[in-house]
Amino acid sequence: MEMLDNVCLDDLSARRNSLILRLRQKGVKIITQARVTEILEDGVIYIHNETTKTLRGFDTIVLAIGTRPNNILMEEIKEKPIPAFIIGDAKDPRKAIEAIAEGAEIGRKI
């Protein structure tokens, strides 16, 4: 289930196409433009095309939830006389490789 128009939009490589093909071959139904509003003991309630729907009969529900930057610590120390930098997911949630590159760049500067 995905809130966007399509799944895996952050990976437009051949790997994505292969994954989606394998999921479909295994009978996985992909529901896009849907928003989960409640998690039940054995399923979910969600809204799709302005209609509330329910899926039940599951023993496991996996959540992959988007993230938001969290730089609260920077707000607390910005007045202190020490150098501080926001990197990684505190700056903008992305892939680990980007956070590593930012850390390396800042490390070279200081």
Distance between the termini: 44 Å
Report the average pLDDT across residues.
86
Number of strands: 3
Poorly predicted runs: none
Strand content: 15-25%
Radius of gyration: 20 Å
The biggest beta sheet is recorded as: 3 strands, antiparallel
Biggest sheet strand line-up: 1-2-3
Question: Which series of helices and strands comes N to C?
Answer: HEEEHH
Q: Which features characterize this protein?
A:
alpha+beta; 29% helix; 110 residues; 3 strands; three-stranded antiparallel β-sheet
Characterise this structure.
There is one protein chain. The protein is of the alpha+beta class. The chain has a domain of 38 residues. It has three helices and three strands, in the order H-E-E-E-H-H. Strands 1-2-3 form a three-stranded antiparallel sheet, with no helix packed on it. A hairpin with a 3-residue loop joins strand 1 and strand 2. The mean pLDDT is 86.
Short description:
This protein is about 30% helix and about 15% strand.
Compile the SSE list and pairings.
Blueprint: H1 14-25, E1 34-39, E2 43-48, E3 51-56, H2 72-77, H3 96-109
